[in-house]
């Protein structure tokens, strides 16, 4: 028996297509596959290594200034056995008494690069990964790509290096974001452990012709540039305003601003964080604006426990004259400008030095490493990852004058560290901070909107209100491609007030943003809503919760993400979730799969309709039904002994010209902790009774054994088109779910 509950008020922006699209075509079929017993997965031995407790890496208060530092010998080996009396710390050149001293090791075992698959396994898809929980994170790495300062040549090199990092160097427990300085927060710029999402972000890295860099990493000389070089060689000239210099300074400030935004966002994440800033460089010069932005950026990194590593993407370059330089019309044997060639080379070398200076400064002032003068960018990334494994925490009690506000201007205080133990040592640490305590600079979310945004931006989601988001890709001939989402909300986490008639009412605020393939928001919905529940349904409603439906039309194929946050207005508790969806191009006539819907049913023979139809003009729907498997499809929680049922669609299979029928079969796998625990048999999709041979319905069922281990699992579907060519015959899709006791 289906019950409907009032959901009034509602969002103020209505650009969403919230009508229930015909997703029932995905799964509204009977299951031909018989239930299969799932073997009990073997328990793996418990690892003796433990993740260190989260520590306050950097603290700047009126009672304590604590910073992190890395000490190595001249060969780069980390020194891990220093004692407090072997270290001196200085503030503005004055020695300070060390009150806090410790060494933190966060070693992550290195894994070997994934071996190339054998010829027979080349069609096998990669094993998907589930989202990390906060306690599982070992390294937090933001890779900031300065596409405002990358040349066309460097962009291609960086794209290859980053792909290699994601596919071969990422470790379990790595939380990574790939962020462009030219764009805001979006689907391709969120922290994740999902390699699919990171690779999609890398694919969307593009050269920006309006940036600071040209096509070549080292720009060629044009005739006017050669003339300028000659004039410079022949003697001083009257200075003139150069619009290119002003423009480059503005773009440099833009890159630093984007970097500061990332650093500020990292502040809320636990432990020691790192930023890898990849650029062709920027000049510090004498611009007060650039220098002031650099000082503030260094201060932000200190307070956010962030270390900035920089990488010069230009690689090793020939700084002499090349075939790309335009030198026609100049006689190298004339005596007047005899040094013009040397002057051009000198100018080019000076420019490269100045560009690297900005990258060196960022790394030096924040305790990181500047990677430059190498053609092995992948090796540079590997060196950065290794450097993140250990550090010292050193603190002292500051003088009152450090935080004296009477001057009206907060002063920037320089920090330095000296190792007194005999020998040669290299010290890298944060080299300064502003005289403002962390309590003064703290800007926690205070308004309801700020709380929602904070929950939306968190890579882990907020848990004040338990929510679960399930987003599926689908496509119909009538509506085209869309992203269909079910948001489960645990009603017991909301605050209900009793009305005179005995019904209960809760007030919530919803914020949902869908980010497109370019990282920009494509749809947004926000606003308050009221939830009313009849008296006789209240107890069961609290227990079962409710589901909110969202459908977003997709115009272009690519990577998308939906992020949703719900706030209980009475208590201020916030819950949030996000889901990444890849939308294939169904117009390419290549095999593709929709999202997978999963649910339970009392037996394997009944029809499967997890998303029942609703009036097309409904903008929101709250529904609960104890007999209908709606909640299990959104919540994705199952128990041992139940029958897990799944449904999906197959798009664009090849059709046999003789029979006008496709030949597609599929296989399912269950995975836990990255290990395959069950492999189903090959099932052929029967084209009979299909209304559209280009959109095939497929479904199946798996019996979850009574002894199956509780935990997070992944259901993966691998479909094969027997009539397609070797390159496009396999497609795969997956969805995660949980088995509870």
- Ranges with pLDDT <50 over ≥5 residues? 1-54, 111-125, 184-188, 223-227, 229-244, 603-630
Shape: globular
| DSSP helical segment count | 12
Strand proportion, as a percent range, falls in: 25-35%
Spatial gap, N to C terminus? 26 Å
Task: Give the overall pLDDT as a whole number.
Answer: 74
Main pleated sheet: 6 strands, antiparallel
- Taking all Cα atoms into account, the compactness measure Rg is 30 Å
Model description:
- Helix content is 20%, strand content 31%.
- It contains twelve helices and 35 strands.
- The strands form seven sheets. Strands 2, 19, 20, 21, 23 and 24 form a six-stranded antiparallel β-sheet that branches. Strands 28, 30, 31, 32, 34 and 35 form a six-stranded mixed β-sheet that branches.
- Strand 8 (139-145), helix 2 (152-169) and strand 9 form a beta-alpha-beta unit.
- Helix 5 packs parallel to helix 6 (288-303).
- The longest helix has 27 residues, at 340-366.
- It starts with a strand and ends with a strand.
Q: Keyphrases for this structure?
A:
single chain, 741 residues, alpha+beta, Immunoglobulin-like, Rossmann fold, 3 domains, 6-stranded antiparallel beta sheet, 6-stranded mixed beta sheet, 12 helices, 35 strands, 31% strand, globular
Short précis:
By secondary structure, the chain is α+β, with helices and mostly antiparallel strands. Residues 1-54, 111-125, 184-188, 223-227, 229-244 and 603-630 have low confidence and may be disordered. It contains twelve helices and 35 strands.
């Amino acid at each position: 028996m289906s019950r409907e509950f009032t959901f009034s008020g509602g969002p103020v922006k209505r650009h969403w297509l919230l009508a229930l699209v015909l997703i029932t075509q995905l799964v509204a079929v009977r299951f031909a596959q018989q239930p299969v017993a799932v073997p009990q997965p073997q328990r793996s031995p418990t690892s003796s290594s433990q993740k260190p407790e989260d520590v306050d890496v950097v603290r700047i208060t009126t009672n304590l200034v604590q910073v992190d530092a890395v000490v190595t010998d001249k060969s780069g080996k980390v020194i891990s056995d220093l004692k407090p009396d072997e270290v001196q710390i200085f503030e503005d050149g004055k020695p300070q008494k060390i009150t806090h001293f410790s060494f933190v090791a966060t070693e992550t075992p290195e894994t070997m690069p994934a071996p190339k698959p054998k010829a027979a396994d080349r069609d096998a898809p990669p094993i998907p990964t589930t989202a990390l929980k906060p306690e599982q994170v070992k390294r937090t790495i933001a890779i900031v790509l300065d596409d405002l300062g990358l040349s066309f040549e460097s962009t291609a090199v960086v794209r290859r290096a980053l792909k290699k990092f994601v596919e071969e160097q990422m470790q379990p427990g790595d939380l990574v974001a790939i962020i462009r300085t030219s764009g805001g927060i979006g689907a391709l710029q969120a922290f994740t452990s999902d390699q699919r999402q990171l690779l999609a972000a890398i694919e969307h890295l593009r050269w920006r012709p309006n940036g600071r860099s040209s096509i070549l990493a080292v720009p060629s000389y044009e005739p006017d540039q050669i003339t300028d070089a000659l004039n410079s060689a022949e003697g001083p000239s009257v200075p003139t305003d150069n619009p290119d210099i002003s423009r480059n300074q503005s773009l440099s400030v833009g890159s630093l601003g984007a970097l500061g935004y990332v650093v500020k966002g990292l502040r809320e994440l636990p432990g020691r964080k790192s930023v890898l800033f990849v650029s062709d460089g920027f000049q510090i010069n004498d611009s007060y604006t650039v220098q002031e932005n650099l000082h503030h950026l260094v201060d932000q990194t200190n307070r956010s426990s962030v270390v900035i590593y920089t990488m010069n993407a230009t690689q090793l370059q020939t700084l002499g004259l090349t075939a790309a330089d335009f030198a026609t019309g100049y006689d190298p044997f004339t005596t007047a400008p005899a040094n013009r060639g040397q002057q051009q080379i000198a100018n080019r070398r000076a420019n490269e030095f100045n560009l690297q200076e900005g990258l060196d400064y960022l790394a030096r002032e924040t305790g990181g490493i500047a990677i430059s003068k190498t053609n092995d960018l992948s090796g540079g990334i590997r060196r950065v990852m290794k450097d993140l494994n250990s550090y010292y925490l050193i603190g002292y009690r500051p003088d009152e004058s450090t935080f004296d506000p009477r001057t009206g201007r907060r002063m920037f205080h320089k920090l330095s560290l000296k190792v007194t133990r005999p020998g040669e040592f290299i010290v890298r640490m944060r080299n300064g901070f502003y005289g403002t305590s962390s309590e003064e600079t703290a800007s926690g979310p205070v308004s309801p909107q700020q709380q929602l945004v904070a929950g939306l931006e968190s890579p882990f989601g907020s848990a004040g209100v338990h929510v679960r988001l399930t987003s599926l890709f689908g496509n119909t001939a009538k509506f085209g491609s869309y992203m269909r989402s079910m948001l489960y909300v645990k009603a017991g986490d909301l605050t209900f007030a009793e009305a005179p008639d005995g019904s209960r009412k809760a007030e919530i605020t919803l914020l949902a943003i869908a980010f497109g393939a370019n990282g920009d928001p494509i749809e947004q919905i926000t606003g308050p809503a009221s939830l009313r529940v009849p008296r006789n349904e209240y107890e069961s409603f609290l227990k079962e919760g409710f589901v909110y439906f969202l459908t977003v039309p997709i115009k272009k194929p690519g990577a998308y993400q939906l992020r949703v946050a719900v706030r209980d207005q009475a208590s201020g508790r916030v819950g949030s979730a996000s889901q990444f969806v890849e939308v294939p191009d169904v117009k390419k006539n290549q095999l593709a799969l929709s999202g997978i819907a999963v649910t339970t049913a009392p037996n394997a023979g009944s029809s499967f309709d997890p998303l029942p139809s609703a009036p097309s003009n409904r903008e929101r729907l709250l529904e609960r039904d104890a007999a209908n498997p709606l909640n299990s499809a959104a919540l994705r929680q199952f128990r041992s002994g139940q029958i897990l049922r799944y449904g999906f669609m197959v798009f664009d299979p090849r059709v046999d010209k003789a029979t006008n029928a496709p030949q597609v079969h599929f296989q399912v796998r269950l995975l836990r902790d990255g290990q395959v625990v069950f492999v189903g048999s090959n099932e052929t999709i029967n084209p009979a009774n299909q209304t559209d041979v280009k959109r095939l319905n497929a479904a199946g069922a798996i019996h979850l054994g009574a002894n199956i281990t509780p935990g997070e699992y992944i259901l993966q579907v691998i479909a094969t088109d027997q009539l397609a060519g070797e390159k496009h015959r396999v497609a795969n899709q997956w969805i995660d779910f949980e088995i509870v006791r």
